[in-house]
TrEMBL record:
<dbReference type="GO" id="GO:0000287">
    <property type="term" value="F:magnesium ion binding"/>
</dbReference>
<keyword id="KW-0460">Magnesium</keyword>
<feature type="domain" description="PII-uridylyltransferase/Glutamine-synthetase adenylyltransferase">
    <location>
        <begin position="351"/>
        <end position="497"/>
    </location>
</feature>
<dbReference type="InterPro" id="IPR023057">
    <property type="entry name" value="GlnE"/>
</dbReference>
<keyword id="KW-0067">ATP-binding</keyword>
<keyword id="KW-0548">Nucleotidyltransferase</keyword>
<dbReference type="InterPro" id="IPR005190">
    <property type="entry name" value="GlnE_rpt_dom"/>
</dbReference>
<keyword id="KW-0436">Ligase</keyword>
<feature type="domain" description="Glutamate-ammonia ligase adenylyltransferase repeated">
    <location>
        <begin position="604"/>
        <end position="839"/>
    </location>
</feature>
<feature type="region of interest" description="Adenylyl transferase">
    <location>
        <begin position="509"/>
        <end position="1010"/>
    </location>
</feature>
<protein>
    <recommendedName>
        <fullName>Bifunctional glutamine synthetase adenylyltransferase/adenylyl-removing enzyme</fullName>
        <ecNumber>2.7.7.89</ecNumber>
        <ecNumber>2.7.7.42</ecNumber>
    </recommendedName>
</protein>
<dbReference type="GO" id="GO:0000820">
    <property type="term" value="P:regulation of glutamine family amino acid metabolic process"/>
</dbReference>
<dbReference type="InterPro" id="IPR043519">
    <property type="entry name" value="NT_sf"/>
</dbReference>
<comment type="similarity">
    <text>Belongs to the GlnE family.</text>
</comment>
<dbReference type="Pfam" id="PF03710">
    <property type="entry name" value="GlnE"/>
</dbReference>
<dbReference type="GO" id="GO:0005524">
    <property type="term" value="F:ATP binding"/>
</dbReference>
<keyword id="KW-0547">Nucleotide-binding</keyword>
Length: 1010
């Protein structure tokens, strides 16, 4: 279409009510078309990010003195048109600066100087030094005889501010030129960032010259400014804090003048150009602003944390005494490149990244270009971590610039070529959006406009030279590109670290093998990422990915994701070994790898489980179907993982009842129990069950297994000579089984008609012994040990008694501790009517109508004290022993049981076998203050959870919490403490909670202080 036909201001994007009037006043519009000679101006205006904003700025500029000259130049100077109109439509701040200093329009014109090489650091420094009246040819400020400004105070700040904005205007207009005219050169975002860093250096040199003129420091004082962060890496934003560290020589009495000089530099630069941030110095904002070189070295040798060495990766001298700055870098560089050997290296880096994400307000996380997932910081952290791992032995990687370092990592094979190129492209795209957002008002921001702010999104898209694609307008294309790049950054993180490891152990072809690590480099990377045995890990990777099978191919695709998840677990070594064993055991299960590949939640959850628990992989190899329960369509809950215990019990007994022999029935029951233990363990570790729900679920399964096996044995008997009931005792009777609990029981029988007691007892004993052997015999499935040692006379007494025998025994020989043991007695299997008769028999014994005597109370206390003294294992730590330690399970349980013996005869609600139930009823009856009940409950829950976690982590029962190391970290993670955090926090919490519970025990159980 001819440009002069069918064109209107609205068609060109000018929607302001006075657009046509303004255009005519400028002489750019006549009748219904652009004025002669103004067509190109109109189309350049149409391409501006915000046409109306640009036009208003032009109208304001036209009221200044040189407008006729500017107008004439715009009609003939293509470069000026593109640069000026794009800048005015992209940045209100730079538009205001140009209008305040209209002669600066020449900075945008196509003058002969523009065809020279772009301004370098020397030219920019000279310009800013001249602006404050300093000699650019003098020695650098901060050195002996260094340049000092001719201007000071507010006058110097104003001059520096204007000169800095002039430089910024020239750079931004060149950056935006291709927005206004696609034929003009495009500046790469990394070139813009490097020139911004140069400009910051120049501004700091000028600020130092001003500060030196004002402070008049001693001639012998030398001050160097070390650039950190983006300035140090020559990748600065348009608006950013400039991170610095100050080093001065000599120290002593010159330390104070050096600190005053540095503080004034920060203030001058802050008022004129940008904020100067010195919080990356040793000890942060609480540390000395200035230190000598030796002072810095002492700090980094003794106290520096891993992240501080990571920050030093970008350090370089940017102002002041260059010789001193170079000495600083040379002295600290060896420490930086040894940081990856520190024990806490990965944990520190991961924790730092996690803290950054956690500190983003929830409503902003999806719009954060810099700090959110898939944002700029993800790229920077990934690159820096790889640099620190491999830069120790490869000095080609030692660049403070993200893109330069990424290119080196790719060239040297540490990162795949395609991966490196894609990551660099995403990084440049995100940086471009960041630059454009900051240019608008020259404010520091990394936040995309809200999804419903289409005007702001359209402006951003146009300023970034995004065009509609035929299916979507510019807003749709922008949002799609942002999301695509964020996803790509997130996924490439996994490949960056782990794909080259697979190439190191596998024969990969084509582009899969474009990044190949040497075995030593692969071991270094694995060690840095948290593997204590890199060589073993490489062996597992070889075993998983070796060969040309379909399974090996799927493993190669899966492992980058899985290894990334494992690296965040408490024990990556054990997790990877477990994953290999599970994969080998399930090699013939057709859906196993497909499920991991297609269900991201399953893979993520499985790695969390394997990297935390030794019990889960042992159970999983023979119960793989539980993996399907790890899938979830929404949220974190999986209904299959949190089934109702009653429903599970019915299903188990129904399944077992179909078996034709007791052996088959017991095998079926034990297999079902394995499945259920695994399901409960997964739900527990994934935080889907409370501790009392875990205990209830485990107890219900154990009851069902015992009952179903007993039923099967009884069905196989040709003649039933007695009726048998199984009475649960201890935690089994209380419904509080843990993962490693035995089933404590007693047996009661009544003879069948015409059968004498002796024959009935003998027959019943043979039956229950067969049940015990079936449930405790060697088998691939976990045993359920059935323990009858709490029966009268213990191991010396008969295994089974009749009701009459129990009645006679308790009447003649029963002791107070046996009454206490009966508090948890509850029928769990066999004949229910007989179980109820037994309960009626023992109720007067365990719930005495008048309570118990003072001597009985003293006896119970004496027994408890002896148990505490004699049964605690040698070398155990009483403060962290979950069963016999202070405030542990025994303390709380004995306290509740004493209250029951004393008061359950009168308070019927206390007649419960549950510890927590007894606590609640004691508090409800006024026998225990509410606060004391809460302390005891928290102690019981904490100790029970910790005991369960020990079994989950170690794969075997245990009562003593680990003192340190990976097992302690795994126990803490199993209890919901953050992975990678300090497990000492868990120990502190455990000791605090159990100490408070113990204080209640001493008052209530022992009577101290009452």
């Amino acid at each position: 279409m001819d440009r002069r036909t069918g064109t209107s201001p609205a068609r060109l994007g000018l929607t302001g009510p006075d657009a046509t009037t303004t255009l005519r006043a400028l002489g750019w519009w006549a009748d219904d078309a652009p004025a002669p000679g103004c067509e190109e101006i109109m189309w350049a205006l149409a391409r501006s990010p915000d046409q109306d904003l640009a036009l208003r700025a032009v109208e304001r500029l036209s009221r200044t003195a040189p407008w006729p000259e500017i107008d004439a130049a715009l009609r003939t100077d293509r470069g000026l048109r593109g640069r000026l109109l794009a800048t005015l439509g992209a940045s209100t701040a730079l538009g205001d600066h140009l209008i305040s200093h209209p002669d600066r329009w020449l900075l945008l014109a196509d003058t002969p100087e523009r065809h020279d090489p772009p301004p370098d650091l020397a030219r920019r420094s000279a310009n800013l030094l001249r602006a404050v009246g300093a000699d650019p040819d003098a020695p650098a400020p901060g050195t002996a005889d260094g340049a000092r400004a001719g201007l000071t105070g507010p006058e110097a700040v104003a001059a520096l501010r204007t000169a800095y904005r002039d430089e910024l205007l020239g750079l931004a207009s060149a950056d935006l030129a291709a927005v206004g005219d696609p034929e003009l050169p495009v500046m790469e975002v990394d070139d813009v960032a490097a020139q911004l860093a140069d400009l910051a250096e120049a501004a700091l040199s000028a600020a130092l010259a001003v500060a030196a003129a004002e402070q008049d420091p001693p001639d012998e004082l030398r001050l160097a400014v070390i650039g950190m962060g983006k300035c140090g890496g020559r990748e600065l934003n348009y608006v950013s804090d400039v991170d610095v560290v100050f080093v001065a020589e000599p120290g002593g009495e010159l330390t104070a003048p050096a600190a005053k000089l540095a503080a004034r530099v920060m203030r001058v630069a802050g008022e004129a150009c940008f904020e100067v941030d010195a919080n990356l110095r040793p000890e942060g904002r609480h540390g000395s602003l200035v230190r000598t070189l030796e002072g810095h070295l002492t700090y980094y040798r003794r106290w520096a944390k891993t992240w501080e060495f990571q920050a030093l990766l970008k350090a370089r001298p940017i102002a002041g005494d260059r010789e001193l700055g170079d000495a600083y870098i040379e002295a600290l560089s060896p420490m930086v490149w040894q940081a990856a050997t520190r024990d806490d290296f990965v944990a520190d880096v991961q924790a730092m990244r996690a803290r950054v994400i956690e500190n983003i307000p929830t409503e902003q996380r999806e719009r954060e270009l810099k700090l959110g997932r898939g944002g700029l910081r993800d790229v920077e952290f990934a690159v820096q971590l790889l640099q620190l791992v491999h830069g120790r032995s490869d000095d080609t990687l030692r660049s403070g610039n993200t893109l330069v370092a990424l290119s080196a990592l790719s060239a040297r094979g540490y990162v795949g070529r395609d991966d490196g190129a894609n990551l660099a492209a995403s990084y440049r795209f995100l940086r471009l959006l960041e630059h454009r957002l900051q240019l608008q008002r020259l404010r520091r921001t990394h936040l995309l406009p809200a999804a419903d702010d289409t005007d702001a999104l359209r402006w951003l898209a146009r300023s970034a030279r995004i065009r509609p694609d035929g299916r979507r307008d510019v807003v749709g294309v922008l949002v799609a590109e942002w999301q695509r790049n964020a996803r790509r950054v997130t996924r490439l993180h996994e490949k960056l670290f782990y794909r080259p490891l697979l190439a190191a152990v596998s024969r990969l072809a084509g582009e899969e093998a474009d990044a190949v690590l040497s075995p030593d480099a692969a071991k270094e990377r694995l060690k840095a990422l948290g593997w204590a045995s890199p060589e073993g890990a490489l062996g597992h990777l070889r075993g998983l990915t070796g060969g040309v099978s379909r399974a090996a191919s799927i493993q190669r695709a899966l492992l980058p994701v899985l290894l990334d998840e494992l690296s965040h677990s408490p024990d990556p070594d054990r997790g990877l070994l477990a994953y290999r064993r599970v994969s080998e055991a399930l090699a013939s299960t057709p859906w196993y790898l497909r499920l991991l590949r297609d269900e991201g939640a399953v893979a993520q959850r499985l790695m969390t489980l394997l990297g935390t628990s030794a019990l889960v992989p042992d159970l999983l190899q023979r119960a793989p179907e539980v993996l399907r329960m790890l899938a979830t369509s929404s949220g974190v809950q999986s209904p299959e993982l949190t089934r109702d215990p009653a429903e599970v019990s019915v299903a188990l007994r129904t399944t077992v009842a179909r078996q034709s022999t007791p052996e088959a029935a017991a095998a079926s029951a034990r297999s079902y129990r394995r499945h259920e233990m695994l399901r409960i363990a997964c739900a527990d570790l994934l935080g889907m069950l409370e501790v009392d729900e875990v205990c209830e679920a485990l107890n219900s399964v154990n009851e069902a297994v015992l009952a179903a096996t007993l039923d099967a044995v009884l069905r196989a008997e040709e003649d039933r000579l007695a009726t048998v009931a199984v009475i649960g005792m201890g935690r089994f009777g209380g419904g509080e089984s843990s993962y490693g609990s035995d089933a404590d029981v007693m047996y009661v029988c009544t003879p069948a008609e015409g059968v004498d007691d002796h024959t009935a007892v003998k027959w019943s004993t043979r039956v229950v012994e067969r049940v015990r052997r079936l449930l405790d015999s060697p088998s691939p499935d976990p045993a359920l040990p059935v323990d009858a040692d709490l029966r009268p006379e213990g191991r010396s007494g008969p295994m089974v008694r009749t009701l009459a025998s129990y009645r006679e025994y308790y009447a003649r020989w029963g002791e107070v501790w046996e009454s206490q043991a009966l508090l948890r007695a509850r029928p769990v299997a066999g004949d229910r009517a007989l179980g109820r008769e037994f309960t009626a028999l023992i109720d007067p014994i365990r719930y005495p109508a008048d309570g118990i005597s003072a001597s009985s109370v003293a006896e119970i206390r004496r027994i408890k004290a002896r148990v505490d003294a004699e049964r605690l294992p040698r070398g155990a730590d009483r403060s962290t022993h979950t069963k016999l330690g202070h405030g542990g399970l025994a303390d709380v349980e004995w306290t509740v049981q004493l209250l029951q013996l004393e008061h359950a005869g009168a308070v019927a609600a206390l007649r419960t076998t549950s510890t927590l139930g007894g606590l609640h009823e004691a508090a409800e009856a006024g026998l225990l203050p509410e606060e004391d009940a809460r302390e005891l409950e928290e102690g019981w829950r904490t100790a029970t959870s910790a005991r369960n976690s020990i079994m989950l982590v170690k794969g075997r029962p245990g009562d003593q919490l680990p003192r340190s190391g990976r097992e302690l970290a795994a126990v803490a993670a199993a209890l919901g403490y953050p992975a990678g955090g300090d497990p000492g926090e868990f120990l502190d919490d455990y000791r605090r909670i159990t100490r408070r519970a113990r204080q209640v025990v001493e008052r209530v159980f022992y009577g101290f202080g009452s």
